[in-house]
Each structure stands twice: as C-alpha cells, then as structure tokens.
Amino acid sequence: MQATRRNSVKVFVSVFFLSVFVFSAFGEHISFSADSMSGTIGDKSDATTLSGEASVITESMEIYADEIKMSGKDFRYIEARGSVKGINKESELEFTCGKIKYDRETKVADLSDNVSLKDVKNNVEAKAQIIRYNQKTDVAVMQIGIELKQKDNVCNGVYALYRKKEQMLELSGNAQIKQGSDTFRAQEITLNLDSQEITLDGRVKGSIVDERKSENSEEEKKPSEADKVDSGITGADKAESDKTEADKASDKESSASSDQSSEKASESLSDSSEEKTAQATNKTSDSTEDSKKKSKKK
C-alpha cells in the first residue's frame, strides 16, 4: 500500500497561473502553464490536464488552448481542444483549429475541426476539416472542404497532399484550380507552386480568358483624346450653337414675313395702277364723245 502511494500520486493544483519546466526522455525541454492543473504521475504513465488559458511549449512546438491534456511516458502525447492555436517553429507553420493531437516522438500532428494552416515562409494558406502534418517529412495531408491559396492560385478539392519542401500540391476529388480569371478542373491536379506548372489528369475541363484581347476590347471602348476633343462640346459652345440656330430660324421668319409684305405691296401697287389706267381710259373716252357731239352741232 505504501509502495503504491509512492509510485502513483494524484495531483491537483488550482492557482491563477502555473508554470512548470520538465526535461523529457525525448531530449527536449517541455514547459506548460494554465489557470489550473489536475493529473496523476506514475511509473508507467503520466497524465496531466491543464485548464484555462493553457499552453504547452516544446523546443519545436507551441500550443495554446482552453484545455490541454498531456499523457504517456514523459508526456509523449499532447491533446488540446477549444480555440486551439499554435506555431511549429521548426517548419515555420502557424495553425488554428478546434482540436489537435500531437505525438512528440513521431512529430506528427493531427488537426481537426475548421483547420487553418499557414506556411509563413512560402506564403501558402490552407483550410480543411482535417489536416495531418508530419514534421519529419514536411508533408501535410488534407481532407474535406479544402481551400489552398498561394499567389493568384485558389485550389479546391476533397483530398490534397502538400509537400512543403518540394512546393508541390496534389489535389483529387472534384479538384479545381483558379489562376486569376482562368479555371482548371480534373479528377486529379498537380500544381508546382514555384513554377506555377499545372498537370491535369482525368475528365479535364478548363476555361481561359485572353487578357490581351480583353485589354484591347477595353481600349477600343474608351474614346481617344482626339475623339473627346472633337465630340466634346462645352456648355458655352452648346449655348452659342443653340443661339445661332435660333437666330437663323428668326432670320428665316423675318425673311418670309418681308417677302409676304413685298408681295402684298406689289399686289396693291398693281391694283392701284390698273385702277388709274382704267380711270384715264374712261376720261379719254368721255373726252372723245364730247368732241364728236360738238362737231355734229356745227
């Protein structure tokens, strides 16, 4: 009974902040902190649960979460849940997720629940529901709802293999890559993230936009400066033009009125002349009759 007590001890600590440093058999220091800690320490296995702003820091990994559980000999296994975020210092990766399981011996991390992984060095950002990252091989296996962004590339698929050292991406399952305005689809797609070379295999589809043609079309639509000068009429010019047209119309009306007045005057003069001529003719006729009468009397 006494031996059991010496080999297995239950520990519970509740403090505002707790920080502990441990040197493990894996040849690296491990430190952890939290608002509270509970667990057991024994010869066969250790188990410790950290709660409240918990953190575990090793020489290669930093993990922060609402709750972290360390178990196994020398705390080989680390499990965290609740607002998980962390940094892999050796691989220069940043991550956030709902859960993470990390094996300090194999250097394999399993991330799940809305995982976001950022390769800081190569400016690659990936999202998926599940990501398994092997720190020794620098390979990330992604599953379900994958979206990977790099430069102008937006990559989607159900399954993906990201080889960090080689900067190669392999996509499958409704695989699609968008490069700017261009879109490529296939059963399997391989993308070289350095050279931007794409390899498509199986039910290949794609659409490409000719940027040069598009630019030419835009240029054709835009009026040139000369056209703008020729067609552009300022408000003052337009007003002057309208005034000129109005003056021309007024002149036409005046001219037409003058012509009508001239015609009327001409008709009046003509009628007057004819009347005077008729009167003169009548007088002459009367005078002739009188002369004839006088001659008869003589």
Protein model, in words:
The protein has 298 residues and is α+β, with helices and mostly antiparallel strands. Helices cover 29% and strands 51% of the residues. It has helices at residues 2-7, 211-221, 225-231, 235-297, and strands at residues 9-23, 29-41, 46-58, 61-72, 77-88, 93-103, 108-119, 124-134, 139-150, 153-163, 168-179, 182-192, 198-201, 205-207. Strands 1, 2, 3, 4, 5, 6, 7, 8, 9, 10, 11, 12, 13 and 14 form a 14-stranded antiparallel β-sheet that branches. A hairpin with a 4-residue loop joins strand 6 (93-103) and strand 7 (108-119). The radius of gyration is 51 Å and the shape is elongated. Residues 1-19 and 294-298 have low confidence and may be disordered.
C-alpha Rg, in Å? Answer: 51 Å
Head-to-tail CA distance between termini: 197 Å
Question: Whole-number average pLDDT?
Answer: 77
Please state roughly what percent of the residues sit in beta strands, choosing from under 5%, 5-15%, 15-25%, 25-35%, 35-45% or over 45%: over 45%
